Amino acid sequence: MNYGFIGAGNMVSAIVKGMTIGGGGFQGKNIWITSKTVTSAKQLAEACSAQACQTAQEVIGHSDVVVLGVKPHILMEILPELQAAFAEKKPLVVSIAAGKTLEDLAARLPEGTPIVRVMPNINAKIGASTTGICHNAAATKEQITIVREMFSTIGSVAEIPEEQFGIFSVIGGASVAFAYLYMDALARAALKAGMPKKQALELVAQTVRGSAEMVLQSGEAPWPLIDQVCSPGGTTIEGVAALEERGFAAALTAAFDAVLEKDRKIGRGEA
């Protein structure tokens, strides 16, 4: 089976490297890549022993699975000119374009095209992405399995109902930046108190990783775990109370709402 990628930016690079040199078990000789200037496609192809193509039509012609890895507004512009190539080859189409629904994609592809919408995150670069997928009725179980295998090379994969995909784009995508911001703020606070920031950041990152594993492995919700950390009259409850007093949860909810609204605007073509 051959896999094509239209676009060769950071996310596509992470996916292709995860599939090949990351130990995903895919052969570079079966992967075809193109990009706007072709330069980035050639560089990625060389790194992964894959094939660089001059045009998107050439990629489609070689591929059983085509991953659309360009920006949403560019994708909507180029899909009409690729209709003939898609109609002739009839590949499985996978989109990683934010905000573009299965309906949006189907309207610009030949009727009956199997489509899978995928949302990975930047942690794909180290094989630790949280990836959401959904699909249209034309996609078969076998095709969904292929997509899961592809994206399992860069982390975990979860099927998400499309009506909840905007929500996933916040908690599985944008929230990565929230976590980075949280860690950096704690490390800067430690720097202010006298600890070198590099050491503080390493300690914070390890603590966040351990806390995430605790939630996943214990099966407990965060609040009971918070109660276990907070002793009566102790130090931790002082910090938790200070965060609540300053609107920590409310700020996160506002950030969530802002990202979700932006995602919806992109979907409506307003941004």
Helix-strand blueprint:
Layout: E1 3-6, H1 10-19, E2 31-34, H2 39-48, E3 51-52, H3 56-62, E4 65-68, H4 72-89, E5 92-95, H5 102-106, E6 115-119, E7 129-135, H6 141-152, E8 155-159, H7 165-193, H8 197-218, H9 222-229, H10 235-245, H11 248-267
Helix pairs in contact: 3-4, 7-8, 7-11
Q: What structural class should be given to the helix and strand makeup?
A: alpha/beta
Question: How is the biggest beta sheet arranged?
Answer: 8 strands, mixed
Strand content: 5-15%
Helicity, as a percent range: 55-70%
Shape: elongated
Terminal-residue CA separation: 36 Å
Low-confidence runs of at least 5 consecutive residues:
none
Number of strands: 8
Question: For the CA atoms, what is the radius of gyration?
Answer: 21 Å
**How are the strands of the biggest sheet laid out side by side?**
3-2-1-4-5-6-7-8
Can you give the mean pLDDT? 94
The helix/strand order is EHEHEHEHEHEEHEHHHHH
Question: Number of DSSP helices?
Answer: 11
Describe this structure in words.
By secondary structure, the protein is α/β, with parallel strands linked by helices. Helices cover 56% and strands 13% of the residues. The protein contains 11 helices and 8 strands. An 8-stranded mixed beta sheet has the order 3-2-1-4-5-6-7-8, with helices on both faces. β4, α4 and β5 form a beta-alpha-beta unit. α7 packs across α8 and α7 packs across α11. The longest helix has 29 residues. The two termini are 36 Å apart. The relative contact order is 0.09. The model has no long low-confidence stretch (mean pLDDT 94).
